[in-house]
Specification:
The chain is of the alpha+beta class and 418 residues long. It has a single domain (9-415), classed as Cytochrome P450 (Cytochrome p450), CATH 1.10.630.10. It has helices spanning 9-13, 19-22, 25-38, 58-66, 82-91, 105-114, 119-122, 126-143, 149-154, 156-166, 173-184, 199-220, 226-231, 242-255, 258-273, 275-283, 288-299, 330-333, 368-385; strands spanning 41-44, 52-55, 71-72, 146-148, 234-235, 238-239, 304-309, 313-315, 318-320, 325-329, 386-391, 396-397, 406-408, 410-415. It is globular and about 60 Å long. Bound molecules: protoporphyrin IX containing FE. Protoporphyrin IX containing FE binds at residues 65, 98-99, 110, 162, 251-252, 255-256, 259-260, 263, 296, 301-302, 305, 357-361, 363-367, 370-371. Residues 65, 98-99, 110, 162, 251-252, 255-256, 259-260, 263, 296, 301-302, 305, 357-361, 363-367, 370-371 line the site of protoporphyrin IX containing FE.
Length: 418
């Protein structure tokens, strides 16, 4: 627990550009609370980054996301350095995933898999998810009375789920895990490939090489996996370009697992730190739906997305000029006193829970339902078998400004064999 306090709104605004600030959650939330109170539409101008407006109130984030004709994902969907922005302006994005594009391209691309992610189709996965959940809780038993829950359980289950849905062979899962961590952990010395800005380009090139082969294979021999749906999709009668196809695989493989893993590990930590809520959920498993959403609100694995205004727009009396970018701070919106009763209390029965962890509007997380199902499967298996649990060391958070959460969660426990 850190007792660091931001001295003023200028200092508070720098949390959004500082990967280490996200790893100190107490400080981060103090900074956001100050901004919500004193400067909810706050201009951040710092060395190394092009300026942006930090939006910290829930209602404003919902409003901006709903206005997708005014606020576009292009050309700056996530915060990068001045060099990242310049590279994107000259070369275009190396990847053109769903989060990089706007309508009509976005609508067409999203249509390729939106049916696949419908509840009716996902319901078929219940058994698969329950199987993975059992496998990983059994693994905890095999490991004895302690493990690093973040690395031994949470990191693997969503990876296995998403890669099996895509249709990749299990022998490639390790390689995908490493590449995803290198992509999202580019600011963390334990996870990044190297310290140079160009290392991230090498990571993306590796994704490209792997998925180019996959596309060719699935076009030649389609199967019933999601990779085949994407490889053989048509928009206006045309195949997707190789860039679109590969980008689709990358967004699914990456968005689908570090996020969910962070929610799982952070969810368990919240239960450990709130033993009354753990007991409540164990004695009333009917609360699982609200509990899982509360874990996802509490953790908020995706820290921000950005939009760029195409015309002047006034938010709380401040004019966002055409061409200005806004950073939508989901963790701040999810602790907004005007949107939640007692936002800093972890309540497994919280209802309503209008959190922003999956975003809102046309880019609303495609995998939200799948993520919820995975968390429910894991905790449905774990909680009845969990006789005791406590921290066995200090949890550590990933240094990131985009996606992340706990990178280590050492626990001691008693889990009964199946
Ligand atoms: C707890 C886990 C997850 C969290 C917190 C999360 C969060 C998010 C957020 C915040 C967005 C952007 C929404 C916006 O701009 O309004 C997003 C988009 C997306 N997510 Fe997730 N996600 C999670 C799990 C998943 C899973 C399991 C998948 C599975 C494939 C997935 C696939 C996607 C895709 C494809 C997009 C882009 C959608 C678009 O731009 O149209 N996510 N997610």
């Amino acid at each position: 627990m850190s007792d660091r306090v931001p001295h003023n709104v200028e200092e508070a605004g720098y949390v959004f550009v500082d990967p280490a600030a996200y790893a100190d959650e107490d400080y981060f939330h103090r900074a956001c609370a100050l901004l919500r109170r004193e400067s909810p539409v706050h201009k951040v101008e710092g060395p190394g980054f092009n300026p942006f407006w930090a939006i910290t109130k829930s209602a404003d984030i919902f409003d901006i996301e709903a206005r997708n004709q005014i606020f576009l994902n292009e050309p700056r969907p996530v915060l990068g350095t001045i060099e990242d922005d310049a590279r994107r302006a000259t070369n275009g994005d190396m990847l053109r995933t769903l989060i990089h594009v706007d309508d009509p391209e976005h609508r067409n691309l999203r249509g390729v898999t939106s049916e696949w992610f419908l509840p009716k189709n996902l319901a078929k996965l219940e058994g698969v998810l329950a199987g993975y959940a059992k496998r990983y809780v059994d693994k905890m038993v095999e490991l004895g009375d302690s493990c690093d829950f973040a690395r031994d359980v949470a990191m693997y289950m969503p990876l296995n789920v998403i890669l099996s849905i895509l249709g990749l062979p299990e022998s490639d899962y390790g390689r995908m895990l490493k590449l995803t961590q290198e992509l999202f952990g580019a600011a963390d010395e334990d996870l990044q490939r190297g310290g140079e800005p160009t290392d991230i380009i090498a990571v993306i090139q590796d994704f490209f090489a792997y998925f180019t082969r996959l596309t060719e294979e699935r076009r030649a021999n389609p199967t019933d996996d999601m990779a085949s749906v994407v490889a053989n999709a048509k928009i206006d009668g045309e195949d997707l370009t190789l860039m679109q196809t590969i980008s689709y695989y990358v967004i699914t493989a990456t968005a689908g697992h570090d996020t969910t893993a962070s929610a799982m590990a952070g969810g368990l930590l919240a239960l450990i730190e709130h033993p009354d809520q753990l007991r409540r959920l164990q004695s009333d498993p009917g609360l699982m739906n609200t509990a899982v959403d509360e874990m996802i609100r509490w953790v908020t694995p995706v820290k921000h997305f950005m939009r760029t205004a195409t015309e002047d727009y006034v938010v709380r009396g401040t004019t966002i000029k055409a061409g200005d970018s806004v950073l939508l701070s989901y963790p701040s919106g999810n602790r907004d006193e005007d949107a939640f009763v007692d936002p800093f209390s972890f309540d497994v029965g919280r209802s309503p829970n209008k959190h922003l962890s999956f975003g809102f509007g046309v880019h609303y997380c495609l995998g939200a339902m799948l993520a919820r199902m995975e968390l429910k499967a894991l905790f449905r298996e774990l909680l009845p078998r969990l006789k005791s649990v406590e921290l066995a060391g200090e949890p550590k958070w990933m240094k990131t400004i985009f996606v992340g959460g706990l990178k280590t969660l050492p626990i001691r426990y008693e889990v009964t064999p199946a």
